[in-house]
Amino acid sequence: MTNVREPFATHYVQLFQSIVKFYETKNFKKALKAADEILAKYPAHSDTLAMKGLVIKATGKVEEGYNLVKEGLMNSKFSSGICWHVMGLMYRDDKNHEQAIKAYMNALRYDTQNIKIMNDLACMQMHVRDYKGLLQTRHKVLQLKPGMSGHWISYAVAQHMAGDRQKALVTIDGFISIGDLSNPYELSEVLLYKNSIIQEIGNPEGTLKHLKEIENKHRDPIYVLETRAKCELQLKRNQEAKQTYQALLQLNSENHAYHAGYQQACGLSNSTTSCSDDQIQSLLNHYDELLVQYPKSAVIKRIPLNFATGQEFKNRLDKFVRTYLSKTIPSLFSAIRSLYSDPSKVEMIQELFSSYESSLIDQGQLPNADSSQKDAPSTLLWTLTFMAHHHDKLSNHEKAMQYVNRAIEHTPTLIELYQLKAKLYKHVGAYGLAADQAELARQCDLADRHLNTKSVKYLLRADRVQEARIVFYNFAKDMEGNFNAHDMQCMWYENRLGESHLRLKKYGQALKQFHNVKDHIEEMVDDQFDFHQYSLRKLVLRSYVEMLRWEDKIKSIHFYVRAAKNAIRTYLLIIKSGDSCKETNKTAQDLVDLEENKKSQKPKKKKNEEGGEEEVLPKKPQDDFGELLMNVQDPLAQAEKFVLDLIKFANDDLQGHLLAIELYLMKRDYQNAIRSIVRARELDLENAELHYWTCRFAHEYGANKNEKDQEVVDPLMVTFMNGDLNKYNQDYIERNGKRYGAKVSVAKVMHLLEQDEQRVVSLIKDCGGASLEECLRGFEFGNEIGINLGEEMRREYPLADVFRV
Predict the structure, then answer these.
(1) For residues 567 and 642, what is the distance between their CA atoms, to the nearest angstrom?
(2) DSSP for 355-407?
């Protein structure tokens, strides 16, 4: 804060400064005492009133704090820089960033050369990505204090983030010329930051030249080698790039990115579809040479399987898997799962492991073994385990279950087998049995966090919520023994708990969990504020820029995308169900569980000012059942907020666009609906759900079109539909008639158009070979139109919970 102006006496100036000191050290009681002493002498002093308001707000009295600051502003006739600065701090604390920036700018009108206010303003401008304002603020600071090197690098980062990279390079040079960079690591970080900007400009030649200049000054050899290799590839200097990647492989032969670059440097592609036979053989020879240098590298042994074909593939696969089987490495199937995209390789995998199984049963050893000594019994165990994974991958669920049961009979103490059996049950919809198997696996090792997590996931999928909470509590309690999944930001748990509540039609409780995930993401965005000053001071510039760019797309992470989609589904279901959803949101058992959970919360303790301990009861949670979230005035508006996030941050997510279409049809916003349809068609043209929503859009739009919508919708719609909805639906079933999901969508369109109901029923009953997800769609649609498909679905998935009588 700035110094207090006259007519203060010296004693009161010092007293005012002590208020600032006590506030910064969170000694609020002494800060208030000092403020009251000043106000006893000067009751209308604006700056003291503002500081007292800031301290009172920090103690939890928000409204009183704001009133005191506003009183101080009025006493100063709104001309006190300190009052405006304090107001900015309070707005910042409340995450009201726009008002905080306005307050800081008002403070600078009356305290034009206050560096601290300028730094606070710059941090806030960076936080909201106001790069234009940030450049102006940082430039003004630099003009005021050009001798301070930190202001140069701050200005350079502002120029970089604003896109003016050339000027940023000039500013960095100015920083290096005047900065005290005696620490070699700080110098290295600045030089490599400059190099990263040169690379972003798209100047590989300049990047390599600069790396040569700083060869003896940098302290990050891995970054230098990686950057050099990328630039050499861009400049088509393949021989130099090959040598650089070889140097990187010496450091880490398991890095797939290095192998991809190495292949490109050798003039090869990492895809067999774009390689000739000679190129494939050349690549295999290269990896044989690498294997001599790195004989223990699993990646070097695995990558050739992507390219080898025919007998060559089978021979290499045989050699590769024998090591896994003999050393009982559980991750064998994970290691070669990606090969299942090639049907010819799947066939050879099955032939190879079938021969292993027969030989191990008949002779006790793998075929063509080097010695007459029999293999360990575990070799047969892991062969059976692999075959269970193999048939599960091919959707041969019955055969997969037979293999896993044989493996359990062979070695009933192997935990992985019970996890595998749980997965098999999950894939056939038997979620209760899957949860039982996962819990059985957990009981084998109660100290294993992974097994605990898996058990919780399976229990939640089976909608056994209270059991899941009890199991999760083992690893989700704080030092006082309180359940703190929310404090741990355990988003996987909250997502799955919300999904379970959604299936149980407890929409308010579901929304509470999905909004918890949203709150975590927003908290992570706010957390970056702590790093704006710190990163510039410590000169961790590359990491700082990387963090800023990651924060810009944080809502694209799968935890948030999943929560957003589920929140949209929940709001749409609330609209469809009306008042009836309020009756199912909480049951008598929920109230009992809540009381039990509260009783289990132990009181926390904290140190008081006298050094003793005092108990602090946990804060009472608000809206335990999410009823405020469920009973919002406009659920569509709340759902649209999530839709806009998905369109902006997860534009490649098909399900997000399908939900957007449904929402915009409810709003009769046909312009946004058609935009989501067009984007969804770019992602998956033949998707069954997309076909239904496209037809439903055409049907509703045709009945409600207006001139304003026609200007936007018709030019886009004509690109895929000529207006004949019946023909469009018939053409789709002709192209996709073998897929049950397509049959369900076509049937739904026919029902929408009130066409042949017998044909509708015959389509949804023809479910042979359908996936579980497709069967669920058909089953739900059958229930909607009063057709019970339980018998047909049980023929396909007899163990599935949802199809049981």
Answers:
(1) 8
(2) HHHHHHHHHSS-TT-SSSSPPPHHHHHHHHHHHHHHHHHTT-HHHHHHHHHHH
Sequence-distant (≥ 6) Cβ neighbours of residue 421 within 8 angstroms:
401, 404, 405, 408, 437
- Mean pLDDT in residue range 261-266: 91
Tell me the sheet residues that pair with 606. 614
CB burial of residue 522 (10 Å; 0-12, 13-18, 19+): middle
The C-alpha atoms of residue 802 and residue 794 are separated, in whole angstroms, by: 9
Crossing angle between the packed helical segments 238-251 and 221-234, to the nearest 10 degrees: 150
Query: What global pTM score does this model have?
Result: 0.90
User: Comparing 605 with 575, which gets the higher pLDDT?
Assistant: 575
Torsion angle of the four alpha carbons 78, 79, 82, 88, in this order, in degrees rounded to the nearest 10? 50
Q: Kindly state the percentage of the chain with pLDDT values over 90.
A: 79
Q: What band does 583 get if pLDDT is binned at 50, 70 and 90?
A: low
- d(CA 601, CA 756) in angstroms, rounded, equals 60
Q: What is the largest CA-CA distance in the chain?
A: 103
Q: Is 180 exposed, middle or buried, given 0-12, 13-18 or 19+ CB atoms closer than 10 A?
A: exposed
Phi, psi values for residue 303, rounded to 5°: -60, -40
Whole-number Cα distances in Å, 159 to 138, 165, 374: 9, 6, 69
DSSP letter at 303 equals T
Q: Helices in 294-331 by DSSP H: which ranges?
A: 298-302, 304-307, 310-326
Contact criterion met (CB below 8 Å) for 676 and 657: yes
What does the CA dihedral 701, 704, 706, 708 come to, rounded to 10 degrees? -60
- Of 214, 201, 266, which Cα lies nearest the Cα of 239? 266
What pLDDT shows up at residue 477? Answer: 76
Torsion of CA 213, 216, 218, 220, to 10 degrees: 120
Burial classification of residue 565, based on how many CB atoms lie within 10 Å of its CB (0-12 exposed, 13-18 middle, 19 or more buried): buried
Q: Give the C-alpha distances (Å, rounded to integers) separating 55 from 1, 471, 529.
A: 14, 43, 21
For the chain, the straight-line distance linking the first and the last C-alpha, in angstroms and rounded, comes to: 72
Residue 541: which of 227, 217, 190 has the closest Cα?
190
pLDDT at 4: 42
Question: Structure tokens of 579?
Answer: 């008042």
pLDDT in tens, 195-210: 999 999 999 999 999 9
Q: How many CB atoms lie within 10 A of CB 729?
A: 24
Q: Are 8 and 16 in contact (CB under 8 A)?
A: yes
Q: What count of residues does the chain have? A: 805
Distance CA 321, CA 326 (A): 9
| Cβ atoms within 10 Å of 221's Cβ, excluding its own | 11
Of the candidates 254, 257, 253, 255, the one whose C-alpha atom is nearest the C-alpha of residue 270 is 257
Question: Per-residue pLDDT tens for 114-153?
Answer: 999 999 999 999 999 999 999 999 999 999 999 888 899 9
In the chain, the amino acid numbered 312 is: E
Whole-number pLDDT of residue 608: 43
Q: How many CB atoms lie within 10 A of CB 685?
A: 11
Contact 114, 107 (CB under 8 A): yes
Name the residue with tokens 């046909």. Answer: 670
**3 state SS of 718:** coil
User: Of 211-215, 561-565, 613-617, 620-624, which range is least confident?
Assistant: 613-617
Distance between CA atoms of residues 754 and 777, nearest Å: 20
Host H or E run for residue 531: helix 531-538
Question: Can you tell me the distance from the alpha carbon of 429 to that of 344, in angstroms, rounded to the nearest whole number?
Answer: 29
